[in-house]
Amino acid sequence: MNLSEFYKAMEAQDVTDILRRFPVRYESLLPTGVVTEPEDGQRYVVLGVPFSLFSRPGRGSSFIRFKVKCATMTLSCILFNQSFYLRKLSGKQELLFVLYYSEPRKAYIVHGIHDPDSYYAMTGIRPVYSLPKTVPTSYFTSYLKRILLEGTATFQIQSPLPDRLIEKYRLMNEKDAYRAIHFPRSKEELTKGLRVFKYEEALSYSIRSLRLKRQADRKKKVHNAPIDHRKINAIVKSIPYKLTKDQLSAIRDIVLDMEREKVMYRLLQGDVGTGKTIVSLVSLYANYLRGKQGILMAPTFELSHQHYENALSFFKDTNVHVAFLANATSMKASQRREIEQGLKDGTIDVLVSTHAAISDKIRFKNLGLSIIDEQQLFGVAQRDSLLSKGESDLLMVTATPIPRTLSQIVNADLDVSTLEEYPHGKRNVRTKVVRSSDPIIEEAIRKCLAVHRQIFVVAPKIDESDEKASATSIFNEMCERFGSGNCQLLHGKMKKEDQKRIYDAFLKGEKPILVSTTVVEVGIDVSKAALLVVYDANCFGLSSLHQLRGRIGRSGDFALCLLVYDGADKESQEKLSFLASTNDGFEISQYDLKMRGAGSYSGERQSGKSELLVCNFVTDSNIFRCAKEDAIGIIDDPEEMQNADYLRSLDRALVTKLA
After folding, report:
1. How would you class 265 by CB atoms within 10 Å of its CB: exposed for 0-12, middle for 13-18, buried for 19 or more?
2. Alpha helix locations (H) across 83-228?
3. Which of 322, 247, 309, 234 is nearest to 278 (CA)?
4. At what angle do helices 570-581 and 542-549 cross, to 10 degrees?
5. CA 262/CA 177 separation, integer angstroms
6. Cα separation of 170 and 195, whole Å?
7. Which pTM value belongs to this model?
8. Are residues 239 and 248 in contact, defined by beta-carbon separation less than 8 angstroms?
9. Residue 100 near residue 569 (C-beta atoms within 8 A)
10. Over the stretch 150-189, which tens digit does the pLDDT of each residue have?
11. FRET pair for 436, CA 20 to 30 Å: which of 346, 392, 474, 490?
């Protein structure tokens, strides 16, 4: 690989892009020794000499069996699918091994082999990177060494921060911080290096968020008719169940915002099942009463079509004209043209849509309210594209709630309405972590079938390609055990009309077992669903699992969630056990933020990457609080020389990112 190929594979424009490919985690290489009775899944780091090698090559799967003689005992080891290590293991030299004990195999599984005199082995801290498949880790680290350790760089590595902030927080200089990140000599030095980039990210994030908020605050409505509150009260009373105090409070906040001269910029957050959809529909009705058009946009066809069905039912006794828009592959061209014309001439009052509404062809006569459901699955550019279609209030909706104090940091003081109560009372969902061989899975399915309740069965992928469970194989297994007449398979690669047919049959209970991928994660509402089985549950994030769990027990009746995991990884076991211990979405989202980082909370999901690489809203909340105060100072005085330079550097970085 030459340098040009390397930069292309890394999608890097300059050296800074390479340096900012931060480690995803750090691995300790400090020797731990071993014990006479090792625990299953326990990690060990040992120094020893390999001998007695036996290898079995293979294209799909290969392994090397060998023994390691260490200071106190001899260990039986297995190395899978890394036959290139055979030569190193044959050298009969002392090596450093990272091992995990496997009780079923009565052997140690090898996860890493290092020379004892290597840089990382001597410092005891090894960075772990996520790199493109075509880029060897050795090439990447050797390039970093030339820049950061060998002093061959011909360019200056300078901090983008104003000098006063570097001095205020006594931050390490930029080059030393990069070296501390990529080649840490101690935990203390690593912490100091991380602190630099955490602050840089927090400040950049705060600047961008505050800019968006202030931009929204400056927007004024030119034409804004009053809303008849009596009609709002009448439609709320017509709902066949009593709304919670939180729902009524959220509706009041939204209606009052819509009546103000300033454009609304509000977040509606609430756990799964707290009734965000009905609040959204009442808001659309309030918008209709002031003579404006509204849109409800959702990230998936399934969720948006369900919102459409709910909207038709909700508005059936009114004069509100509701239309549905999906991608070109899901609709006839004549249908799309009819909807496009209805939006232009104002005969369509409410549009329910996927992201297809962002298209330049979609134009409104008088757009007044834009509601984005599961807003964290849309990026800032998509949101702005929708808002550019009219003088529109914005209501963002999310089922990934976080505490208000944290929300103020994440959302830059965005106006927030929170739903904490459940319309049908406290949900009664029990969660249990089980192995795939546990008889409770079959027992629970048969009980649900006997009382005519629906069952969700979820797998992490569609087809078999590795050791993970696939929806296709599980579907075939379910058909054999419970009859093909009871089972259906659903995934995102199916045609939309087939997905709708399958979902409708499931909703009616005609085929009560739905085996699927995560296409059912958000918004699917089947009130009689009482069982969720998630295979290879460790492959999902906690927020995703909690969203999936939200598909069951929606009527308030007892429901059971079974998280299937056959592995021994302690971190995965801890994560799943935590989920089983609580149904509180606030606790779960905070735990998930802490464990996985910012993820979708930053609102930049277009490329699937978070803009926060090292900073975390939960664990680094104090850094965010300081950065937020500093951001206000910079935005309030943009002409000051260092502030202006810093803001220009942010703008250049954003242009490069979006290019």
Report:
1. buried
2. 86-89, 119-123, 137-148, 163-169, 174-182, 187-218
3. 247
4. 40
5. 44
6. 10
7. 0.68
8. no
9. no
10. 866 556 788 999 999 999 999 999 999 999 999 999 999 9
11. 490
pLDDT digits (tens, 9 = 90+) for 481-519: 999 999 999 887 788 778 888 888 888 889 999 998 877
Q: String of b and e for 563-595 (b: at least 16 CB within 10 Å)?
A: bbbeebeeebeebbeebbeebebbbbbbbbbeb
Pick from 341, 362, 343, 384: nearest CA to 654:
384
- Say which residue the tokens 């902030």 belong to: 165
Question: Residue 297 carries which side chain, given as an amino acid letter?
Answer: M
Tokens of 506: 């499931």
Distances (CA, A) of 105 to 43, 534, 544: 15, 26, 32
Quick one: which H or E segment has residue 454? none
CA 188/CA 184 separation, integer angstroms: 9
SS3 assignment, position 150: coil
Main-chain dihedrals φ then ψ at residue 34, nearest 5 degrees? -130, 165
Judged by DSSP in three states, 450 sits in: helix
Residue matched to tokens 């290597």: 118
Percentages (nearest 5) of helix, strand, coil residues in the chain:
45, 20, 40
